[in-house]
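To fix ideas at the outset, we first show an illustrative case, written as a sequence plus integers encoding its fold:
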Amino acid sequence: MTVLYTIAIILGLIIVYVLVNTLRLKKAVSNLNQDQFIQGYRKAQLIDVREAKEFEAGHILGARNIPSTQLRQRYKEIRPDLPVYLYCQNSGRSARAALFLKKKGYNQLYQLQGGFKTWTGKIKTKA
């Protein structure tokens, strides 16, 4: 019986953790579908947080690459007074990047819902 209580407590803690993170994320970043993303990203800073090899394989036209692994050192390259449009491959890394930037005082944060894998607009690749 104690094993069941332990399992129930662990599951409860996991559920609470997921809910808290979801609420934090909703406060930090706005998810935009591709059409909404296209409407705003040309007037903003478009940041691809994928690694350099992923970026070189193909990225949204006009994007700047600041990999999430380098964001802590390079976040000052991003202006806090302008909107920041983030994307990664699936939305996970861009969500974590948004949480980090929010802590650093950035307020206009947007991410591409579904990430680059759902993008059907113009892209650039390095030959």
In short: The helical segments are 2-28, 34-41, 52-57, 71-74, 92-103. Residues 29-124 form a domain with the Oxidized Rhodanese; domain 1 fold (CATH 3.40.250.10).
